[in-house]
Amino acid sequence: MSRGVHGILSERGYQRDAEQSDLYQGLMDSGGHPQMGFTLHQFGGDTHGFLYHNLRSFRHRRTSGGPDDNEYLTFSADGKAVTMRGRNLDKVLRAIISHTVMALYEHDGETPYRRDTPLIDRVEVTLLNGED
Q1: What is the CA radius of gyration of the chain?
Q2: Of all helices (H) and strands (E), which one includes residue 62?
């Protein structure tokens, strides 16, 4: 991360732990500073932007059934439905509700991560009603 970008993020409350610099971080939180919106970065390269006042219909659910327990977080905004699959997504939901998410990142499937942090292993963004 460049020094300028790091300075801006530090001013906004985001502090990246030096020990975790090589670990995947699916949630970039502002550290308690409310935001206007956030970006969602898919592993394939697509990036989506969302304004908090347009978000609707949140749902967090867990599935169980062995070693591959998953969580799902869904919401809609501006003619799009978003579904995320992963672990510790309740932390993502709490950050969205408190307007402190700056960015969310889909995992590449290879980068190491801490088990207690949010992992977004799959994201699907679907257009509703043929809108764009």
Answers
A1: 15
A2: strand 55-63
